[in-house]
Amino acid sequence: MKEIIERHKRIALQFSGGKDSIALLHLMRPYWDRLTVYWLDTGDSFPEAREIVEQVDRMVPRFERIEGRQPSVIAQFGIPSDIVPANATPIGIAAKGGGVLIQDRYSCCMRSLMMPMHEQMKADGITLVIRGQKASDRMRSPIKSGHVEDGIEYLFPLEAWDDSRVFAFLREQGVALPRYYEVMRASPDCMSCSAYWEDGRAAYLKRHHPEAYEECQRRLNAISDATAEAIAHFNMEIGR
């Protein structure tokens, strides 16, 4: 890892506020003077995440905030969902003469988070990106540590780690995690996200952020209404 870092002058550590990026930040402490920490504000970030970000901003020599596009992406492409029925796509809505526009969850993340981050890396002339991606992550980019694209090399120091090792390392470092890990399976990027149903977001929002919970439920109800007909037809097709 040291040899890779020494080859580069423009180094970015991409920080999300989740457990993996927190562990990565502490692991990379010997190199803080050589890198810049980047955090992308989705425009709908959890207050808990913002608290961590403020702490990190005070800790590291160089910290940059990137403006995300979640609100405008949803306005243009629709609310995110794990299921997208045909009648909720742009063509489906045009054919029906109305309806709720829905996009798949990965497209929403790509448009809201990943593209703005990558654009900033290129604009700042970054040649090495350090990220807390693990091979065991259920949600990860298809590239591996050492990959080079658009003149940018990617380094994933936690690639061989699993969640248990991350938690153990954070305990050793005396790092307290955000309270949403008590309920949710993963660190959330957006409060009002209506996708990633397996994460347990609704229960956490209901308890700690009731206003955001109401907005999330409004979107989930819209998805329920939009998918009901397609699900009913699907169940008939498979004999249920």
UniProtKB/TrEMBL annotation:
<feature type="domain" description="Phosphoadenosine phosphosulphate reductase">
    <location>
        <begin position="11"/>
        <end position="182"/>
    </location>
</feature>
<dbReference type="InterPro" id="IPR002500">
    <property type="entry name" value="PAPS_reduct_dom"/>
</dbReference>
<dbReference type="Pfam" id="PF01507">
    <property type="entry name" value="PAPS_reduct"/>
</dbReference>
<protein>
    <recommendedName>
        <fullName>Phosphoadenosine phosphosulphate reductase domain-containing protein</fullName>
    </recommendedName>
</protein>
<dbReference type="GO" id="GO:0003824">
    <property type="term" value="F:catalytic activity"/>
</dbReference>
<dbReference type="InterPro" id="IPR050128">
    <property type="entry name" value="Sulfate_adenylyltrnsfr_sub2"/>
</dbReference>
<dbReference type="InterPro" id="IPR014729">
    <property type="entry name" value="Rossmann-like_a/b/a_fold"/>
</dbReference>
